[in-house]
Amino acid sequence: MESSIRTITILTVTFILTLTSCTSDVADPSTTSTSGVSTTTLQATTTTATNPVTTLPPSTTTTTMTPTTTSSSSTTTTTTTTPDPDPGVAANVTVGIGGGSGEVIVEWDRGSESDLDRYNVWYSLVPGGTKTHLDFVNHDPSAIGPPAYNAGSGRTAYVDFPRAQAEGTECYQISAVDTGSNEGARTGEVCLPITPPSVVSGFTVGIGGGSGEVFLTWVRGPEPDIDHYNLWYSELPGGRKMLLDSVAHDPGALSAPAYNIGGGVTGYIDFPRDLVNDKQCYQIAAVDAASNEGARTVEQCLSGL
Which run of H or E residues covers position 11? Predict the structure, then answer.
């Protein structure tokens, strides 16, 4: 019996030793012997980790949603509209006197743009004055009507009546307008030119009725703006001339001592004068409506008596 107990004890010890070798000092065995029986009691050993346990925060997973863009390929057609340019400036504007009865004639070259519709005529009495819209004239020659007309050679004319025909005044500008009502720039201002009348032709000095009358004749000038004629006189050749008289250009306005001889000739009787050779000397000059006096004729004196 005792031998059996020992055997059990040995087996027990052997088991414990084997268990101890498998567990690295996990338990510290205490042996208690009771009634000659050796009993080995395993003491639980608590092992505290020398390294602190790090508690990880809950993992935060951030999910970034990338919107899915569906690209739809489209074709955009851009239409470029070229602006309609304004008409060009009218060319070769001229202003002149018409028939001599208060007519001013404005002329210009018609433009070449295909969409031209009309021309605006602008007017002021004096140079640099504010222009007022006087009238418009069709571009199409077949559509032009009075007071405008087709002047030929690609030119249009406009008759402005009545005007004073005073040179240096009566000022105009022209601007072209297209079918889209776009008005081009105005031309430079053009006024009646200051052009004195030409020298009077056909001037003669002779004896009249024989009783102290000196008879003068001359051909009326061709310029339509001639208003009158100034007669200049000196008793001797080369003498200082004084204004003897002013004679109307219009034959219907003549009065004594002037009169209409006919054929475009005006006569004037200067009385009384001493009818002596190389005395009673005269000159004549035409004056226009703007009071511009032309050059005087060569001095003519009585001779051949």
Answer: helix 2-22
**H-only helix segments in 153-289:** none
Q: Say how far apart CA 155 and CA 133 lie, in whole Å.
A: 21
Those residues with Cβ within 8 angstroms of residue 186's Cβ, 6 or more apart along the chain or in another chain: 89, 122, 131, 173, 174, 175
Burial track 261-275 (b if 16+ CB lie within 10 A, e otherwise): eeeeebbbebeebeb
Query: Per residue in 210-247, is it b (16+ CB within 10 Å) or e — as a string?
Result: eeebbebebebbebbbbbbbbbbbbeeeeeebeebeeb
Tokens for 179?
């079918």
In this predicted model, what pLDDT tens digit does every residue of 62-113 receive, in sequence order?
A: 444 555 554 555 667 666 667 778 999 999 999 998 877 889 999 999 999 9
pLDDT tens digit sequence for 255-285: 999 999 999 999 999 999 999 999 999 999 9
Closest CA to 296 of 275, 280, 281: 281
- CA nearest 144: which of 178, 118, 111? 118
Omega before 222 within 30 of 0, i.e. cis: no
CA 96/CA 302 separation, integer angstroms: 39
pLDDT tens digits for 11-49? Answer: 444 444 343 444 444 444 444 443 443 444 434 444 444
